[in-house]
Amino acid sequence: MKLWGRSSWPLQAAFLVALVMLCVDPVSAGSRNHRGPTVSYQVKQGTCEVVAIHRCCNKNKIEERSQTVKCSCFPGQVAGTTRARPSCVEASIVAQKWWCQMHPCMDGEECKVLPDLTGWSCSTGNKVKTTKVTR
Asked: pLDDT, tens digit, for every residue of 31-44?
C-alpha cells in the first residue's frame, strides 16, 4: 500500500500491510522483513502493533510512507485503521469497501472514499492524505 500526502506521519498505511499479512501464510515478521532483524513476539488479541516503518522516495514533492504492523484480531475482524492508527475493524467494512466506516482519519479531518473504491482520503484545510489499498 502506498500513502501519498504532505502532512504528518500517516499511520493509515498500516491497513493494507496488515491486511496482506492476514492473507499470507503465517511467517514470522523477522523472515519477512529484509531490512534487518525483527524480534518475534505475540500481540495481545484484539490489537495491532507497528513492527517496522518505511519511508520511500520523494516523487514530484509527494512522499510515500508505509509501515508494517502485526495484528491479532478477534473472529469477524480484520486489520484496519482507526483514527490514523492500526486497529482491528469489522470484516464487513473491508469486504464492502466502506473505508470511512472504520473512522480512519484523525479527529477534525474529513474522510472521503475514493471514487474507484480503492481507498480513502483524509483532509483538513489544504492538506490531503490519501491511502490506496492495493493487492
From this structure: 333 444 445 567 77
CA distance 67 to 11: 7
Indicate the SS3 state at residue 101: helix
Cα–Cα distance for residue pair 92/82, rounded to 1 Å: 15
Hey, is 129 helix, strand or coil? strand
Instruction: Note if the pTM is more than 0.70.
Output: no
Query: Distance (Å, rounded) from C-alpha 135 to C-alpha 11?
Result: 18
Taking only the tens place, the pLDDT of each residue in 39-73 is 556 777 888 988 888 888 776 777 787 888 888 99
H-only helix segments in the chain: 14-23, 29-32, 91-95
Strands (E), 94-135: 110-113, 119-124, 127-132
DSSP-assigned states of every residue in 24-40? SPP--HHHH-TTS----
Radius of gyration of the chain measured on its C-alpha atoms: 14
DSSP-derived pairing of the beta strands 2-5 and 47-59? unpaired
Phi, psi dihedrals of residue 128, rounded to the nearest 5°: -130, 130
* CA pair distance 110, 9, nearest whole angstrom: 17
